[in-house]
Amino acid sequence: MSNRCRPLAMLTTLLLLAGVAPGMAQTVQQPDTVGAAAAPYTPTMGDLMNAFVQPRHAKLGLAGKAGNWALAAYAVVEIRQTFSGIVKAQPRFRGYPVGELVDAALAEPLRAVEAAIKQRDPRKFAAAYDQLSRGCNACHASLDHAFVVIKAPGASAFPNQDFTPGQ
Question: pTM value?
Fold first, then answer.
């Protein structure tokens, strides 16, 4: 047996002798699904924002910073479609109409981002993207979530995607 395998073998032996390993399988609780349908999962607004909006916002910023205008244009479409889906999935949040909140906070900034992308202007894009981030933060603040602060990404959280144009 190699020296690297000895600690693992020793740990396994100790767990078996102590009776821990056999008991581990017995401690996992299986849900009682006999006769009951599982309740469908309903994502929260936080789930929707973290899973769908925030990554698209980051990708938009990274694409614009890299001058990948085709990818940036695609990211704006994705953001718009995502918010459209969120409005359908959760039309109200904390009593407020989500569609109206999104329009008030993001309609003008998204138009400015789209215009900068069409012009392929990095300075205008940076300003419009900053305006978009401020719109996000204003919406968060209006819903007592001022602690959720959106900003331009400093680095890519997507190591498996190349943001440079022409790929």
Answer: 0.77
